[in-house]
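New to this. Please check this protein:
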Amino acid sequence: MGKLDKYIFWQVAGAAFMTVALFVFVLVLGNIFRVVLYELLSGRVTLTFFFEMVALIIPSVIPYSLPMGMLTGILLVFGRMSAQSEIIAMKACGRSIYAMIAPVFLLAMLASVFSLFINFYYAPAASYAYKNAIKNVIRNNPLQFIQSGKFVKDFPGYVIYANKSNSETHELVGFRIWELDKQGRASVSIKSDKAIVSYSDVSDEIVLVLKNGSAERSNSQDPELLRKPLPSAKFESLTVKLPLNKIIGESYNEIKKPKRMTFDELLEARNTWHRIPLEKLEKLPPEERKERLARDKIEVNLQIQKNFAMAFSIFSLVVLAVPLGIKASRSETFVNLAIAIALAMTYYMMTVFIAWLEKYPEIRPDLLIWIPNFLFQGIGGYLIIRSSKH
């Protein structure tokens, strides 16, 4: 590799590294705000746990950050080189466009190989560890989701309040819970002397055992008022279950999904993985069972092909970015950033649309997932050939 090749290689590598870091920061920040930050600010998780969650989120956003970062880095470098007439000077010295972009393609292939390892090993392992970490926090201290002295509205359809709590006995004293109707009005009001809080790993629910209380149902003619003539029902013990999947994502007792499987697990699961337990699958009618088996198999195959396609999307976007960067003749950072985001979003939207076709295994979405790569490479290749003739 000559001096000029090294210059282009390290210029693009440096710009790509900075933009990848930027996109990682933005995507991690989005996930943190959505899931963990509120839990930290409300005192439900410790600062140490918060940073552990950040570390586990990073591998899952790299497959998306790396292509966008490489794309942006190339647009920035080649846009600047074009604006400063460096491209014209290189052509005048007899250097072809293909020789100029060779170091960039080398960098893209190295990034694609790196992304393969992330997609097939580190990202699924980190995602699985992330979900299990949250699950363990809830299991060890389910009381943290219902803090005393505050109206808790995290559980859709309920409002919860307790005067005080006892973390040693997992009890809430002076407990109140309101069940809301579709308009968000209280339809049922339950109060009890205390509530014992626990977590059910099987059903993925917070279980409240209410002691010595009463329940009132609102008047259908006047739902804002919880009063007679509808009498209250007293009880010595009442169990209320609050599903966690509605506030922190999917149920943890579900079968491990393909997106959280490593490469070895995916290969093993191609003929053995099923979305529902095998005993339930065997009870289905033959036609429905056959259809489900086909859909389960295509879902695993689609995940395998998607991981490969996402890794090589780096190369596909680079092929398109090089001629666009040369042609743009702009050095403005924000313009190049906007072009990069638009191209990346187009690619990801196409991928998402094809992934929706997993319900139709007969059209082989696991093969169609490569269409965005071939399309971007074809357009980019055509533009490179045109650029070489000018």
